What does this fold into?
Amino acid sequence: MTDTIFFILSKFMQFCIEPLNWVIIFVVFSLLFLSLRKPALCKRFLILALIDLLVVGWLPTSQVVLRVMEEAVPKTSIATIPEGELGGIIILGGAIEGGQISVDRAEVSLRSSAERVTKAFELIRKYPDLPFIFSGYSGRINPKGISEADAFKQLLIEQGFDEKAQLLAHYENQSRNTYENVLYMKPMIAEYGLKSDAGAQKPWLLITSASHMYRSVKIFQKQGVEVIAVPVDYQTGHHLQWTSFDLEDGAYNWNRLVHELVGLLAYWITGKI
It folds into this structure.
């Protein structure tokens, strides 16, 4: 029950502080003051709405912090790591459109974080003897249809992975957020992960978006699980796009940024990291 309340509150907090949502609030207030025949206040809230749109659309405002988040965990050169030193592969959900749409259309769709899936396919083929776990149910408050884990299982079949890959595949289909990902996977990692000669658990490759990697690694560390970061889905480069204005990209960047900042704050307050 406590985890459910925490989950709902984190979603509500993200909605409240996301900049683009404030445009609606400013416009509503401007219409209210217009109906009350207070043009000065109406004008002020319209100006605030315009400033908000400019802040969201001018890409450096979101990129400057998002880039810090994406570079918080250094990218590991996994090409130099022998397969014998790895315990398995972890793929965090968030890239697959499961739910009712997949049921209605009988088709699995990938979201903008599709690199989580494509990188997973690459590593599963590169390390054919490693077990792997896909973790994720749904990030929605009121989920319907199939889980992301079940959708990933369907994708494996559609992409022609052989029977050996199917036997090494494991699925966690209850989690709604990153903390639950780790909590529900921890016993699976202990059970299915490969171990060293001394019986110690070998580290697992962890695939998730670069902006999400810092929070994910911190939670795994808190739970005593050693992982090697494989960040994907970068949204920033080495240089900021000072002359770029794009409301769609800006809104997407702010959504990611606020999601991570709210998650870090909430997890820190509750002792999850």
In short: Residues 146 and 242 are 42 Å apart (CA to CA). The domain at 78-232 is CATH 3.40.50.620 (Rossmann fold). The longest strand covers residues 204-209.
